[in-house]
Design brief:
Radius of gyration: 27 Å
Number of helices: 14
Organism: Geosporobacter subterraneus DSM 17957
Distance between the termini: 65 Å
Structural class: alpha+beta
Keywords: Signal, Transport
Strand content: 15-25%
Family: Belongs to the bacterial solute-binding protein 5 family.
GO cellular component, one term: periplasmic space
CATH topology of the largest domain: D-Maltodextrin-Binding Protein, domain 2
Pfam families: SBP_bac_5
Shape: globular
CATH superfamily of the largest domain: Periplasmic binding protein-like II
CATH architecture of the largest domain: 3-Layer(aba) Sandwich
């Protein structure tokens, strides 16, 4: 009897152990789990990538950057961004926009299947939008909630058509429809989208999950039914590593084929002949903001003199080791909307001094700073958050640059909390700041007079800019959209509510046996992976 009880306990223990590590949402996808760690990369048939330790693979509730990029291989949106951030067809082949730009009707691609073989339908699109809209507030949030903030409702018109109604016609941004579409048939309710933390990804994308070990790796194989055909690289293994530093260490040890750089010192990898570096412009934009509530800074000529007096390339070379891209405006230089003709400000001390002299600021030796007719010194405070060491260094350099043209800069180094308080209360002259810009190119948050103080903290109020922003937001075709953004940029560089410093760059370091058209982007480091190949 005791022996039977003992054997029963052993049997139950084995049953329990079998279930440890299994997925909570087992019906999401049947995935083979292997306890064998994948072998060292064999570039003849598989691409091994690092995947930093994550909370979830659910693309809707994920906040991990490496999972976000991996999800781009597995899921499709209605539309996708090309290398110039211009929306292109994906799950939707075409779209029509109503006269008031508030109603969008998408025609879906025929014969698309989910990775489990079930057909993709318009119901999946509506389900995903409804789920994202539910997560706009409260504890259920998503990194994609921003994309559906402006959506009023989604309606299935026919089997292959979806109508999306926006809350305003001033939202004609096709970029809003690039969020990943989920399979409705894998969730019992919309709420389940936010509780499926252990979801195994199931999409319609170029690659599908074939094996998954929660603590070790995720294996992807090319989707044989994919609408764009088969990639040269058929197998990808995402090796789970503790952190970004370990990802780079794994690259150095030749255990993975690529890794994303962490800092700006990636030139050290150029010394290794077996590695290649692919640099790209991120969406991280650094700027100098002028407080329009201050009478002194309401003078456009003074703002322009300051712009000419700052050597941005020196900031980039000395602080970012050359890895940033100068831009007068908060539009990515790689974007199809960026107007190369609207570049204006180069480092020009003579021009800065000339502008100031014409505005009656004069030198009074031996003081290095200019004064006006009343003897008032040309002096301003520059607000910067003390936790950002790179920005502090930039502030010091800007102080020295502007001293050369006769402007005194007093740096106010404050905590992040104090920095925000002073921004929102308007208690500053100039501010060094930065934005993580969306690929949705709507700049109303910072430039429209109706924006709240948390966004338009410089107090900029321009009816002309308001009109330009609304015109851009309602432009439905490529020609009008490009023209509208060109006008915005022309106004920005002339009026200078903000002076753009640069976009930060990042890079992918890759083993030289991976070749082809490799063109990573900040919104998708696997951009153009269909054109990658082993050499």
């Amino acid at each position: 009897m005791k022996k039977r009880r003992f054997m029963f306990c052993i049997y139950m223990l084995l049953i329990i152990l079998m279930f440890i590590g299994c997925e909570e949402v087992e019906d999401i996808q049947n995935v083979e789990e292997s306890m064998n760690t994948p072998k060292k990369i064999n570039h003849n048939n598989e691409l091994l990538l690092p995947l930093t330790k994550f909370e979830t693979l659910n693309p809707i509730i994920n906040t991990d950057n490496s999972v976000y990029h991996l999800s781009m291989l597995i899921y499709d949106g209605l539309l996708k961004l090309d290398s110039h951030q211009q929306p292109q067809p994906a799950l939707a082949t075409a779209w029509e926009i109503s006269a008031d730009a508030a109603v969008w009707t998408f025609t879906l691609r025929n014969n698309i299947k989910w990775h489990d073989g079930k057909p993709f339908t318009a119901e999946d699109v509506k389900f995903t939008i409804d789920a994202l809209k539910m997560g706009k507030s409260g504890k259920d949030t998503s990194i994609y909630a921003f994309y559906t903030d402006r959506i009023k409702e989604a309606k299935v018109v026919q089997g292959n058509k979806v109508t999306i109604v926006l809350d305003s016609g001033a939202n004609a941004y096709a970029e809003l429809f690039t969020f990943p579409i989920l399979p409705k048939h894998k969730f019992k309710t919309i709420q389940d989208v936010y509780t499926a933390k252990n979801l195994v990804p199931l999409g319609t994308g170029r690659y599908k999950v074939s094996q998954y070990n929660r603590s070790r790796y995720l294996k992807l194989v090319s989707n044989p039914d994919y609408w764009e055909g088969q990639p040269s690289i058929r197998t990808i293994i995402a090796q789970i590593v503790p952190d970004k530093e370990t990802a780079l260490t794994s690259l150095e040890a030749n255990e993975v084929a690529l890794a994303k750089s962490n800092d700006f010192d990636w030139e050290k990898y150029s010394e290794d002949p077996t590695l290649k570096i692919y640099e790209y412009v991120t969406q991280e934009f650094e700027f100098l903001g002028y407080n329009f509530r201050k009478e002194l800074l309401q003078n456009k000529n003074l703002r322009q003199a300051i712009a000419y007096g700052i050597d941005r390339q020196a900031l980039i070379n000395d602080i970012y080791l050359g890895h940033a891209t100068v831009s007068d405006v908060p539009i990515n230089p790689d974007s199809w909307l960026y107007d190369e003709n609207e570049k204006k400000y180069g480092y020009d001390v003579s021009r800065a001094k000339d502008i100031l002299a014409k505005n009656h600021w004069e030198a009074k030796y031996p003081d290095p700073y200019l004064v006006n007719a009343e003897g008032q010194k040309l002096s301003m405070h520059l607000l910067v958050n003390s936790e950002n060491h790179l920005r502090l260094r930039a502030a010091e350099m800007i102080k020295n640059h502007l001293k050369e043209v006769g402007i005194e800069i007093i740096i106010d180094r404050v905590s992040w909390e104090e920095y925000q308080n002073r921004l929102y209360s308007g208690n500053f002259d100039m501010v060094l700041g930065g934005w993580q810009l969306s690929t949705v190119p709507d700049l109303s948050f910072a430039l429209h007079s109706a924006s709240g103080v948390t966004n338009n903290f410089v107090g900029y109020n321009s009816p002309e800019m308001d009109h330009l922003l609304i015109t851009a937001a309602m432009a439905k075709d490529e020609i009008r959209k490009r023209e509208a953004y060109s006008n915005i940029q022309k106004n920005l560089v002339e009026e200078l509510p903000y002076f753009g410093l640069f976009f930060k760059n990042s890079s992918i370091i890759m083993r030289d046996y991976v070749g082809g058209d490799i063109n990573p982007k900040s919104f998708n480091i696997f951009n153009n992976i269909e054109n990658w190949e082993f050499e």
